[in-house]
Amino acid sequence: MRDHLTELIVFGVLFLTVSGMGFVAARWRRPTTMDSLDEWGLGGRNFGSWISWFLIGGDLYTAYTFVAVPALVFGAGAMGFYAVPYTIVVYPLVFLVLIRLWSVSHVHGFVTPADFVRARFGSPTLALLVAITGIVATMPYIALQLIGIEAVLKAMGVTGHLPIIIAFAILAAYTYQSGLRAPALIAFVKDVLIYLVIIVAVIYIPSKLGGWGDIFDAAEKKFATTPNPGDGTLLNGANQLNYAMLAFGSALALFLYPHSITGVLASKDRNVIKRNMAALPAYSLVLGLIALLGFMAIAAGTKPIGTDSNTVVPVLFDQMFPSWFTGVAYAAIGIGALVPAAIMSIAAANLFTRNIYKEYIRKDATEKQEATVSKLVSLIVKVGAVACILLLDPQFSIDLQLIGGVIILQTLPAVALGLMTRWFHRGALIAGWAAGLAWGMWLLYEIPNPLKGKKHFGGSAYNLSELGFDTKMTIYVGVLALALNLLVAILGTLILKAAKVKDGDDATKSDDYVADAGDPKVKDLELTSST
User: In this structure, what are the phi and psi dihedrals at residue 422, rounded to the nearest 5 degrees?
Assistant: First the structure.
């Protein structure tokens, strides 16, 4: 640890400074009271374009970006770059959907996606399933942020889980006090540090390694000698389909996560969302550069600490940068974990409060009681995330995000398609959710990873030969599970409608359910919220 004293000091100072900002955030744009989910959980629904850009960007581009993606590129090569196309195609895919979601949520006061599902399909059961799915899918994503901090601490010689517990205790404290305003304010610092570190890294590190040609040559040489037929600097016939479906499935899943929707609903009007969907792809450029850190680590001869591949980037920074700048880079990763972890815990807590506590435990809960329960549950969620780290094997941290993606994709018919059409029957959507989730979990369980000694849950790429196809190609489990979900939902709807089984009432089907930009009701609402 003495060898990393400068790094520890720089990291500690920046980390504590940002934590202080988290507590101060309670006074930033201070409302009359924080005793409502609109204020505590959505920042007053009044964030403009700049704040929303940093908040949503800080929400989506996390420690997973800095740690898991380069680690996958380091270990598997080209497959790790799937994260780049998926963060490019996602924005045009969700552009209209998110505008519609903001509109109906703004009019009806929805705080969570399950709120919308409850009103749209008249089904508290379906809303409950969406809420539980969102909470469960969010837990491993929060755990992934802890892994990012743990990788940095390991690189500085700090071992054990106590430092992570302390870091998340601080996070829990300022999230409890300041709500969504805390990560919104911290996101400014987080993004400035990330852009600074990456710009320096992609210029400075290649210059020390002999240039990009030598970096790619070293990567090619490494993968040519590994026993895994799926790795390499280029895709091959066996993994091209999985690459495409992984990118597409991840894109569909990204804005189904509760924390992504929370960032969108905090925007003050529809134009903010439009501008952000146009500007957020700028982060994808940075993501591509971050992924290249995996190849740089190969060229630099970087060795992860023990068998923990997540430490590749921190160790690379320690090799290449002077100690003081390494501390800055480590702080960027650490703070890059705090921002999304805070938003995720808030989003999960809001789901519990609105769709479980208020729906099933205390229907007459006041706004103050809702806010209090949400604050307490946000603490419990963080404890659960720490438990994930203590109980699960985090050696390949990207698995946590991919498993979460398979889970959250099963809410797509009810949430995303529900915004576009009311055709589906609530009973069929429930049956589709159950079928897709059960099959997805079974397929994940069946996937081994012999290289890491795993018999089950060894990844998310399923061999199509197991389904009777004569091919060596693999495909992302999330897409298969979603396909079954949709098939069951469609067939179930046709059967239930033919049998004239009563469906739920649509509480959003009224004059104030606005979806199109030209609707005068939207314009009136936007003028009201902007003044």
Answer: -105, 15
Q: Which of 68, 332, 87, 320 lies closest to 203 in space, CA to CA?
A: 320
- Tokens matching residue 126: 């379906």
Longest CA–CA separation in the chain, Å: 73
- 353-362 residue pLDDT tens: 999 999 999 9
Give every CB contact of residue 395 below 8 A, 6+ residues apart in sequence. Answer: 307, 308, 309, 310, 452
Closest CA to 34 of 182, 139, 204: 182
DSSP state of 161: S
Distance CA 439, CA 455 (A): 18
Computed over every residue of the chain, the mean pLDDT equals 86
pTM: 0.89
pLDDT of residue 514: 46
| Range 315-319, long-range pairs (CB < 8 A, 24+ positions) | 315/155, 316/205, 317/155, 317/201, 318/4, 318/7, 318/155
Mutual angle of helices 270-279 and 83-108, in 10-degree steps:
180
Kindly state the helix (H) or strand (E) to which residue 475 belongs, with its residue range: strand 474-476
Phi first, then psi: give them for residue 230, nearest 5 degrees. Answer: -90, -5
pLDDT at 88 over 50: yes
Express each pLDDT in 60-70 by its tens digit: 777 767 888 89
C-alpha–C-alpha distance, residues 147 and 334, integer Å: 10
Q: Which residues contact 195 (CB under 8 A, 6 or more apart)?
A: 286
CA–CA dist 445, 447 (Å, integer): 6
